[in-house]
Every structure is written in structure tokens, then in C-alpha cells.
Amino acid sequence: MSIVKINVLTVPAEQREVLEQRFASRAGAVEGSDGFEWFELLRPLEGTDQYLVYTRWRDEKSFQAWMSGPMQAAHRGEGGRPKPAATDSTVWSFEVVQQAAPKQG
């Protein structure tokens, strides 16, 4: 079964729009990666300043290949790179052991 990676980003209120715009302009940076299955950016509604970046992968090997290749290239610090919108980041890892989809019909 698939694995899930959730990047927990602490984002101050004044940086929320910046973070969302940066994700919107990422132009499919992960979608073409081998083993990639799903992406969602989850905005907090109440009680927290943490966004969740949810990705699902075929396996750990696929995630690690993306981390060491395309992701690293996209986040490589070049001279004019803007300041990060998040003040902290933690990655949670999960293995999918059960799943369900809506019934058809």
C-alpha cells in the first residue's frame, strides 16, 4: 500500500497568503514524479497556525527519489530566493493500511 508524508508548516497569519501563492505557482512540480499519487495543501480553519502539506506516494523509494532530485532542486537556495513563509517544518510519515472511496451509483 501507499505511504503518506505530511509536512506540518507553522505559518504566521501575515504569511498565509504568501505561502498559498507559492504553492499555487509551483506549476506541477511534484505531479510528474514517478510514484507520486496525490497532493493537498490544507489551510487551518481554527485554533492553529499550522498548514498541512499532504502527499501520497507509491512507496518510500519514490518519495526519497523525489526528495533527493526534483524537490531539492526546487528548494535550492539561490541568491535572490525569498524568505520562507513558514517559521517551522516537521514531516510526519504514515503507511496506508486501510482506505475507502465513495460508493458509485
Structure description:
This protein is of the alpha+beta class and 105 residues long. 24% of the residues lie in helices and 30% in strands. It contains 2 helices and 4 strands; from the N terminus they run E-H-E-E-H-E. The model has no long low-confidence stretch (mean pLDDT 89).
Summarize the structure.
Helices cover 24% and strands 30% of the residues.
Summing up helix and strand content along with how strands pair, one would put the structural category as alpha+beta
Proportion of residues in extended strands: 25-35%
Number of helices: 2
Q: How many DSSP-defined strands?
A: 4
Instruction: Report the end-to-end length measured between terminal Cα atoms.
Output: 26 Å
Largest sheet strand order: 2-3-1-4
Shape: globular
Mean pLDDT figure: 89
Note poorly predicted spans.
Answer: none
Q: Helical content, roughly?
A: 10-25%
Taken in chain order, the helices and strands follow as EHEEHE
Rounded Rg = 15 Å
Largest sheet: 4 strands, antiparallel
In quaternary terms, these chains amount to single chain
